[in-house]
Amino acid sequence: MPVTNFALKEKYKYQNGFDCYFETEAVPGALPTGQNSPQKPPLGLYAEKLSGTAFTAPRRENKQSWLYRILPACSHPPFTPAPAPNESLGLGGEPFRKLHHIPNQLRWDPFDHDPEADFVSGLHLLAGAGDPTVKQGCAMYVYAAGRSMGEREAFYSADGELLLVPQEGALDIRTEMGWLLVRPMEICVIPRGVRYQVRLAEEGKPARGYALELFQGRFVLPELGPIGSNGLANARDFQAPVASFDEDCGETAFDGPNEYVVTGKFNNALYRAVQRHTPFDVVAWHGNYYPYKYDLGRFNTIGTISYDHPDPSIFTVLSAPSDHPGTSVADFVIFPPRWLVGEDTFRPPWYHRNTMSEFMGLIQGAYDAKKGGKGGFVPGGASLHNVMSGHGPDVDSYEGARNAELKPAKVGEGSCAFMFESSLMVGVTDWGLKTCQKVQAEYSEHSWGGVKVHWKKTTS
């Protein structure tokens, strides 16, 4: 039968709210009333529960959705190992087990575009820590795609929840639960297990960006504490998709009219199954486990109005808490345009050593703490300052801020840097350290080799 995409006219219609319980149906009457799994769900659909947490997780933490679909997700032939799409995602997940843990500060030039790659083959593992088999840790990626995934292709990760940060080129992401258009200065989170397809919003216009995969837990909004009930990212500004589906299937699961390739990431290795029906056949769904997007321009920045430079935790958009209160497996932090008014205050980030690892990227513009240095910190590039590795503003940024006349000033106009911050010691892949050939070899020397001595000797 021909493919019919229902709800196409409302392709980018969204529901608003973070951690809300949503319900949506592309065909009226597709959602059952009063029961999740009646003996015969409406319209001859199958009921399938998608659980993001243990069944017995506390109610406030429980994440699950009920999908009502034409055929269940289990109806496919066995998965078989897939060839490695690139050196950083090798067969068997070997690159993740050979990470280099080094104390040196690292910075990368902008990563190359790849006109031949789609999202999956253009996803490069850069750094990480932990083990997805015991659901601990996280992984950091860059991606570069020059073409869309095929119309009969889908991808999912059993390893973790994926946060996407586009830097260049918009992504048209089709998920089992509906569509998301994700542009630079927006982010997207796709939960563990959700199947999706990434297309370029404008064919011929390449896409590039960053990604963080969370093996442990899930992203939540940070607590506001003394800030009160307003500030940072507001729950109302997060958007989830509405139901949209194809009806491309035969009379049974294995006699459909077309072949669809589903690629799964499992323990940092890829597996592939070919099935005879579309994976995008969810007619309706309800629950609180779903993909979502957020416009970074809606972030309500908090800062000092007296003196001193607050900790960067005030810029946290999303947080993935660990078992230790106040310490995160990963935080997603941004540095958007903002006013600085602090008196007698060194306004850029101060020099520091951190028990957390800090991976930074630049979406657009220029970062106010990195003005000089050969190569520079530019959009599409990145830096990594690992656990207790000293870092801070480069020489030009420091001297400028040290001698600046402190009037109210807006910094970061037209700019946005971000940080993946983790309590874990992060290792770097061979690809990130050598193969990509983007490491700035003299980053440390060019940034801090010329730091001046301002010490005024005392006389005895």
TrEMBL record:
Active site residues per record: H309 (proton acceptor)
Domain Homogentisate 1,2-dioxygenase N-terminal: 13-296
Pathway annotation from the record: Amino-acid degradation; L-phenylalanine degradation; acetoacetate and fumarate from L-phenylalanine: step 4/6
Gene3D superfamilies: Jelly Rolls
Leading EC class: oxidoreductase
Residues of the Homogentisate 1,2-dioxygenase C-terminal domain: 298-454
Family: Belongs to the homogentisate dioxygenase family.
The protein, known as: homogentisate 1,2-dioxygenase
Protein species of origin: Thermothelomyces thermophilus (strain ATCC 42464 / BCRC 31852 / DSM 1799) (Sporotrichum thermophile)
